[in-house]
């Protein structure tokens, strides 16, 4: 395995930003804005679909400011500029940009609209790209700009594009058909369900602006962004009749083209504006997804005489409730993935105590084990591998400059794989050498919270917000907590972060059978170590004798032992101990036939009863 440790097929460890480029680029943007009579411009970390990952040619925020995080905005005025990011990126933003030109600003203290309201000069014209902001986002900005006594101005084309001389080309990954055996439902049946929802909502058409919805509806997959098999494009589904899919024809394979063509029309992306104007001219009421639809889409419909209605995309909930084929695929993927993780962990247990391994070595070794399955299509996100204090950064990404040696203490690995039959996401916190009493206490409290979710039974209609405290209670009892949600939804060979279901204080969507979620409480001691334990779980109905209501619980689909050396048995009750032992027995039963040699011997020891 040592030969594979220095490189990865799906991940890079380079530091992509260069702060020295920030000053000349911001100066060039200011000059371009002045020529257009603008006093400022907003640069979001977003593409036209508001995706978690943006293709390289849409990474305007990174090009201008050097900041490569997954969320944020820059605002450039004539005399000042801000880079507004959330707490995850406070340290990263300051390291990646030129702070003499751009001021990193905490979103929690000064959100974008408040910064604009406080800093835009009276009478100032603030530009924005209407393809990169949602309808709701523009409404908030308009309110802030108005309060500042200024004017919000839509600007197309984006002024950065003319300055970005070496801008990458748009992605051209092939669009492929997603096999029926994995999808579990035909596109025709999905479209019939969608059109029923449009009739109920009394709207004439739905614009699919979320590529996840496009991929799910038409049973296609692509490769236009990192780590998620998405084709970037749009579709319009009318209440009656055939839909139109807007994708570059040269990207569509014959098989995918035949499948889409049997149900609807295929048009180039440039035809989208014309069709939206036609809907407007027909006085149509058109549903737009409030989470992903660009403000520009609403303007095109409205200016032509139609009624854009920003609201919930009905596909989101359909996609969240996995069918039996998707669930079977997820279970298969997790067995395959679990065996790869076990091979990795057994290797790590042998090699880490020798003192020669780094975080990058571990990331590359884990990816190599997944590749050995012969089924890996990508990692489902950039692997988080944090040693010591790096483990205390929940969204840590190792680079050549941040790479730490794995030394005695905590080592956290959060990773996942994309397989055609399922998407995985697992976190295990490990220890090299002897843990401190505090580490064992904190790990066991996180484990107790994890088990509380795993064992939860709850009535139909319960939301993730109502369960979130279950995972925190053991930490709260010691005056501790964690600052992220307990769990997110997961797609079926789609995004590893899928809504609307979530285990979080903000998770208001009722949980329903077939939904896949992560279960990942944590604890982070800044500058010292971090702990997170994560399995994927599926909502399922529970038969309880004498129950007066429909009750649900969770099926665990991730298979991998917990870190025995970090468990303080004195903190566990009998029910928790019995659950862990039963889980470990099932891990052994499921994975022992899939591993051999040293990995099998390691697994046997790791799964012994506590």
From TrEMBL:
Domain Creatinase N-terminal: 25-157
UniProt domain Peptidase M24 C-terminal: residue ranges: 551-610
Regions of compositional bias (Polar residues) in chain numbering: 1-20
Span of domain Peptidase M24: 331-541
Family named by the database record: Belongs to the peptidase M24B family.
InterPro entries referenced in this protein's UniProt entry, alphabetically: Creatin/AminoP/Spt16_N (IPR029149), Creatinase/aminopeptidase-like (IPR036005), Creatinase_N (IPR000587), Pept_M24 (IPR000994), Pept_M24B (IPR033740), Peptidase_M24_C (IPR032416), X-Pro_aminopeptidase_P (IPR050422)
Gene Ontology molecular-function annotations: aminopeptidase activity
Keywords, comma-separated and alphabetical: Aminopeptidase, Hydrolase, Metal-binding, Protease
Hydrolase keyword on record: yes
UniProt protein name: Aminopeptidase P family protein
Disordered: annotated segments: 1-21
Gene3D superfamilies in the record: Creatinase/methionine aminopeptidase superfamily, Creatinase/prolidase N-terminal domain
Protein source organism: Bosea vestrisii
Enzyme Commission (EC) number: 3.4.11.-
């Amino acid at each position: 395995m040592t030969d594979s440790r220095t490189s990865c097929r799906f991940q890079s460890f380079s530091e992509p930003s260069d702060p020295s480029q920030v000053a000349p680029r911001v100066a060039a943007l200011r000059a371009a804005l002045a020529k257009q009579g603008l006093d400022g411009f907003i640069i979001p970390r977003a593409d036209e679909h508001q995706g978690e990952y943006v293709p390289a040619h849409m990474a305007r925020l990174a090009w201008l400011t050097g900041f490569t995080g997954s969320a944020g905005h820059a605002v450039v005025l004539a005399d000042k500029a801000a880079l507004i990011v959330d707490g995850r990126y406070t340290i990263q933003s300051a390291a990646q940009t030129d702070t003499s030109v751009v001021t990193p600003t905490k979103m929690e203290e000064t959100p974008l609209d408040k910064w604009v309201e406080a800093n835009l000069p009276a009478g100032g014209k603030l530009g924005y790209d209407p393809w990169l902001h949602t309808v709701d986002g523009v409404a908030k900005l308009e309110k802030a700009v108005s309060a500042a006594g200024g004017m919000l101005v839509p600007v197309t084309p984006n002024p950065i594009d003319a300055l970005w001389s070496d801008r990458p080309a748009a992605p051209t990954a092939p669009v492929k058909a997603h096999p029926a055996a994995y999808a579990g439902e035909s596109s025709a049946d999905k479209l019939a369900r969608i059109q029923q929802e449009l009739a109920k909502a009394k709207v004439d058409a739905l614009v699919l602006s979320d590529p996840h919805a496009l991929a799910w509806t038409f049973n296609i997959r692509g490769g236009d962004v990192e780590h998620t098999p998405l084709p970037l494009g749009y579709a319009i589904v009318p209440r009656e009749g055939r839909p139109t899919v807007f994708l570059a024809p040269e990207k569509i394979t014959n098989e995918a083209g035949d499948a889409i063509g049997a149900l609807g029309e295929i048009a180039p992306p440039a035809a989208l504006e014309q069709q939206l104007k036609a809907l407007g001219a027909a006085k149509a009421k058109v549903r737009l997804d409030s989470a992903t639809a660009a403000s520009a889409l609403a303007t095109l419909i409205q200016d032509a005489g139609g009624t854009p209605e920003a609201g919930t995309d009905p596909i989101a909930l359909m996609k969240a409730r996995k069918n039996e084929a998707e669930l079977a695929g997820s279970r298969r993927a997790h067995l395959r993935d679990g065996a790869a993780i076990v091979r990795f962990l057994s290797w790590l247990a042998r090699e880490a105590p020798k003192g020669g391994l780094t975080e990058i070595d571990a990331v590359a070794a884990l990816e190599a084990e997944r590749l050995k399955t012969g089924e890996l299509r990508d990692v489902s996100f950039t692997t988080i591998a944090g040693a010591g204090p790096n483990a205390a950064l929940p969204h840590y990404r190792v680079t050549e400059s941040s790479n730490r040696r794995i030394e005695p203490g905590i080592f956290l690995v959060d990773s996942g794989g994309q397989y055609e039959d399922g998407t995985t996401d697992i976190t295990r916190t490990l220890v090299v050498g002897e843990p401190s009493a505090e580490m064992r206490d904190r790990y066991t409290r996180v484990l107790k919270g994890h088990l509380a979710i795993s064992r939860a039974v709850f009535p139909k209609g319960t939301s993730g917000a109502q369960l979130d405290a279950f995972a925190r209670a053991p930490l709260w009892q010691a005056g501790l907590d964690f600052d992220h949600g307990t769990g997110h939804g997961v797609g079926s060979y789609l995004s590893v972060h899928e809504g609307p279901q979530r285990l979080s204080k903000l998770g208001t969507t009722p949980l329903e059978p077939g939904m896949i979620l992560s279960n990942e409480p944590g604890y982070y001691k800044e500058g010292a170590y971090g702990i997170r334990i994560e399995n994927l779980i599926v909502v399922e109905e529970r038969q309880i004798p004498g129950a007066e209501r429909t009750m649900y619980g969770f099926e665990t689909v991730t298979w991998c032992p917990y870190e025995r050396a970090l468990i303080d048995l004195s903190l566990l009750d009998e029910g928790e101990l019995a659950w862990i032992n039963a889980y470990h027995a099932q891990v052994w039963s499921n994975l022992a036939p899939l591993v051999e040699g040293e990995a099998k011997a390691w697994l046997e020891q790791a799964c012994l009863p506590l």
